[in-house]
Amino acid sequence: MPPEVSVILPFYNSGKTLAAAVESILQQTFRDFELLLIDNNSLDKSIAIAQKLAEKDHRIRLLSEEKQGVAHAMNCGLKNARGRFVARMDADDTSQPERLEKQVHFLRNRPNIGLVGCEVNYIAHEKNTAGFNRFVKWVNSFHSPEEIDFKRFVEIPVVNPTVLFRRDLYEKFGGCFHGDFPEDYEMQLRYLKAGVKMAKLPEPLLEWHDTPTRLTRTDDRYSTEAFFRTKAFYFKKWSEKQNRFHPDIWVWGAGRKTRQRAKLLEKEGLKIQGFIDIVKGKTTEKETLHFTEIPDPGKIFIVPMVTKTGARELIQSFLQKAGYKEGKDFIMMG
């Protein structure tokens, strides 16, 4: 009989953390799983550690992927997964013992949900972590499919190593795509575009370790600009179905950086009718309104793209108080 869950854990030069990550899976209260360890050309002692662990527990399968990159390693795991559900795990994180049990129970009882994540307990390994702290506070603050739908263009809505999803999603919509973009975010946006409902359990079932070598800190594919390129591509597809004024939009934020990022939307075929800003009398190459001058709801569609700390919450609150409905009259992207 195939296992109920396949846990996919890619690793590359993870000798210092791999054993702890694996043990946190082996100690799960839910026992019907296989653990696929995918070596991605490690040069340290990771392979020896993985081999020793595999010898002790028959649920571990050790695989290798010669194409460098976490997307290729993840796809290797997906191709070899036998479980009805697939769980993601990183080599430098640890899962709480009840994680798989609670996530499997959630999906078994909610056939309309395709993917479930959870909150994370953030473990910083250096001092410069203010940005990550803000992200964790944000991503832990919402859980429902509707909230995830609305927040998809702000940032990745579900922390990738927390996800557990139905394997048939991979069979229908594909695995990880490799390119100059964050592969985990692209995959979630692709699944959401296909109509997959996602949710998160409102408790931290994963310790998310933030080290200086984490790809999100060192790889250009996880830069702010790479995220905005990915957002622009999928926002165009979302706008075609959800924006009654498509392709026309108004961008909230008339600063230089925001206007540069807004050009990514134009490259995808969106037509920016003008900008909205907090500075009265600001001039740009397009019409620019002071935020107090926006029309009544139902006249325009607004895409706030300001990334300044705290601005997103203020803009969202202002629009909602003005009668604008999220997903109908505006959607956040900053």
Count the domains: 2
Judging from the principal axes of the Cα atoms, what is the shape? elongated
Distance between the termini: 47 Å
Write the CATH architecture name of the largest domain. Answer: Alpha-Beta Complex
In the predicted model, the low-confidence regions spanning at least 5 consecutive residues are none
> In percent, how helical is the residue content?
25-40%
CATH topology of the largest domain: Spore Coat Polysaccharide Biosynthesis Protein SpsA, Chain A
- Category from helices, strands and their pairing: alpha/beta
What's the level 1 CATH class of the largest domain?
Alpha Beta
CATH homologous group name of the largest domain: Spore Coat Polysaccharide Biosynthesis Protein SpsA, Chain A
Global mean pLDDT:
95
Number of helices: 12
Secondary-structure element string: EHEHEHEEHEHHEHHEHHEHEEEH
- β-strand percent reads 15-25%
Rg to the nearest angstrom? 21 Å
List keywords for this structure.
single chain; 334 residues; alpha/beta; Spore Coat Polysaccharide Biosynthesis Protein SpsA, Chain A; 2 domains; 8-stranded mixed sheet; 12 helices; 21% strand; elongated
